[in-house]
Design goal:
Shape: globular
Helix content: 40-55%
CATH superfamily of the largest domain: Spore Coat Polysaccharide Biosynthesis Protein SpsA, Chain A
Strand order of the largest sheet: 3-2-1-4-7
Largest sheet: 5 strands, mixed
Strand content: 15-25%
CATH topology of the largest domain: Spore Coat Polysaccharide Biosynthesis Protein SpsA, Chain A
Distance between the termini: 41 Å
Number of helices: 10
Oligomer: single chain
Order of helices and strands: EHEHEHEEHEHEHHEHHH
Number of domains: 2
Structural class: alpha/beta
């Protein structure tokens, strides 16, 4: 029941080595069969780093949705683990993943996601972490920076990711529904650099507005423009 790890990346050279380093143990244990870096047109050393770490590289149009579609199409594992390039799993993830894969529900029944964490221990970061935990518990809306461990059969059954540059993770979570989503007791730590640069309150308010616009049916270009601060 080997896992294919799929990492969408775009100019991720600064973060990718830490993400790949934690996956090394999973490869040594035979849990991870392959790591696929789905590159969206990087101009830095992202692809060179992926090659150094013995990853497969596939290329697709920029945008996490399109990149993950390309990565999933190239994957050969019975299970898929979608992971952001700046998200580092706790080393205990292999134990949690093995336990999840061995559950009696059977392959194809459920998908798992990890606990959100930031590499920042400030009060603002702790408040955000608590808010994300509530969102997942109450609304069953884990985001992509929490990873998604999903059986290939279930991924195919729900139609896979859609070619969305934004909100592809929310769209997937909604189609899976809370009955088919399971929290895994291990942290997935994401870089807080953007939160610190933009301010926790500002970035949180913007993300919440984008989510509200998505649920209201706003066109993706409108949401993308707001998310990128007015840039197209």
């Amino acid at each position: 029941m080997a896992i294919s790890v799929i990492i969408p990346a775009l100019n991720a050279a600064a973060d990718l080595p830490r993400t790949l380093r934690v996956l090394k143990a999973g490869r040594a244990e035979g849990l991870v069969g392959e790591v696929i870096v789905a590159d969206g047109g990087s101009t830095d050393r992202t692809c060179a780093i992926a090659q150094d770490w013995d990853c497969r590289i596939v290329r697709g149009p920029p945008g996490r949705g399109p990149q993950m579609i390309v990565g999933a199409a190239a994957a050969s594992g019975d299970w898929l683990l979608f992971l952001h390039a700046d998200t580092v799993l706790n080393p205990a993830w292999t134990r949690a993943a093995k336990s999840f894969l061995a559950r009696p529900e059977g392959a194809g029944a459920r998908a798992g996601y990890f606990r959100f964490a930031l590499d920042d221990r400030s009060p603002a970061a702790k408040r955000l972490t608590a808010l994300v935990a509530w969102r997942c518990r109450a609304l069953a809306l884990p985001y992509g920076d929490q990873g998604l461990l999903i059986p290939r059969a279930l991924y195919d059954a729900v139609g896979g990711y859609r070619p969305m540059a934004l909100m592809e993770d929310v769209d997937m979570a909604r189609r899976l529904g809370w009955r088919r989503l399971t929290p895994l007791p291990v942290e997935a730590e994401t870089s807080a650099a953007k939160w610190r640069a933009e301010g926790y309150l500002h970035r949180s308010a913007r993300n919440l507005t984008c989510l509200a616009l998505y649920f209201l049916g706003a066109p993706e270009p409108v949401i993308r423009r707001l998310y990128r601060g007015g840039k197209t």
